[in-house]
Amino acid sequence: MLNTLRLATFATAFMSLAMPVAAAQCGNDSSGFSNWVQAFKPQAVANGISPQVVETAFSNISYNRETIRADRGQKSFKLSFEQFMEKRGGATIIARGKKMKAGNGQLFAAIERRYGVPAGPLLAIWGMETGFGNFLGNQHTLSAVATLAYDCRRSAYFTEQLYAALTLVQRGDLSPAAKGAAHGEIGQTQFLPVNVVRYGVDGDRDGHVDLVGSRADALASTANFLVGHGWRPGAGYQPGEPNYVAIQGWNAATVYQRAIAHIGAAIDGQ
């Protein structure tokens, strides 16, 4: 699931993109992808990514047609709330979410103490995105992001995501072979790379932000994302309440926002 597309520009880290070494030209099919990669690689080095990381990261990148199909076909957001809940298994997420809350009480209590975010919306997001970590996606992350950076439809937006992904590889927080969702989302709650850089938290304190293998990192990072989008401790998160704006920050689709709020409240017993 694609995280919010209403992020502020990732300009602070990558302002030098305004003057690339050699412009990498976008395209609308696979024919120009190899040339785009060759133009982008020195551009990446000029903007602070080490040559070794660039070569390693791009060694297995390919044009991802599955990513393009997914990008052009996000139809579930056009469903009614009731249809969306049925399609996404809302009742099952609520039932499993209550069990996950009971079985991870200390973790959720610690996150709420630190961020002021209760278990319900975190579990709603976790369940909606990956079935509580059961399916993280099967698409090569760097290929997915590079494909969308090359694709003309949202090239600038996903070029920022590609630089963020390369930054994660460079700091050891993302494997060049990592797999995730079709738009390059990473981990148990499906963060786009820019959001990992901005909001990723080392919840288990092992020295890395591992949103794939660490439940603590993924959930703490999700709470930190919500705080970064206006979450206020103790306030409500249903439509019209103060914290609903943070849920809106998670995903741009109204039906998805309503589902998170509804599922979260059911899990929290509200």
From TrEMBL:
Write down the InterPro entries for this protein, in alphabetical order. Lysozyme-like_dom_sf, MltB-like, SLT_2
Task: Give one GO biological process term.
Answer: peptidoglycan catabolic process
Q: Answer yes or no on keyword rRNA-binding.
A: no
Q: Where is the signal peptide?
A: 1-23
| Transglycosylase SLT domain: residues covered | 33-237
Keyword set for this entry? Signal
Molecular-function annotations in GO: peptidoglycan lytic transglycosylase activity
Q: Does the keyword Signal apply?
A: yes
Q: Which PANTHER family match?
A: LYTIC MUREIN TRANSGLYCOSYLASE, MEMBRANE-BOUND LYTIC MUREIN TRANSGLYCOSYLASE B
* Name of the protein described by the UniProt record: Transglycosylase SLT domain-containing protein
